[in-house]
Amino acid sequence: MGTGSARFSEFFGSFPTPIAIVTARDREGRLSGFTSNAVCSVSASSQTLLVSVGKGSRTLPAIQESQAFAVNFLSAAGRTASQVFASKAVDKFADVEWVPSRIAEGAPLLVDIALSFAECRVENAVEVSDHWLFIARVEESTVFPREPLLYRRGDYGVWSPHNAGVEELSAL
Q1: Candidates 2.30.110.10, 2.40.480.10, 3.40.50.1820, 3.40.710.10; correct CATH number of 16-156?
Q2: Is 65 in a helix, a strand, or coil?
Q3: pLDDT digits (tens, 9 = 90+) for 128-152
């Protein structure tokens, strides 16, 4: 017996997650993107990540056609954009600065609001229930010295480390 979808959502909503905007460009050059917290590392040795895309997403066809996408993890400056890309707005790119990825088939890279971005090529796709899981190789990535945007239980926050200035633990 499962926990039920409400309990499942409560479970995953109980901890803060980074917010990403996943972007793609279809064969006709149309841009698409959506807000996601369903992005995770698969393997550092093969530089792969996983993105979960709902079957109803308007970005899904562009990813399936191009076999490429960009993951733009958001900095604190990306809060408004995360809300726009989570909506059904017609022109989600109207108020964001972006450049086309040379590697990910022109997928928009959100250079002004990104904490980091990864330019990805799809290696595998798996259909699971009402989503597609895309496993992709990160061909190139860029990280900016900005504070990350986090999301938990319907609210936004910004990372505030307690150990600022303390050296990283190397024994892990």
Answers
A1: 2.30.110.10
A2: helix
A3: 999 999 999 999 999 999 999 999 9
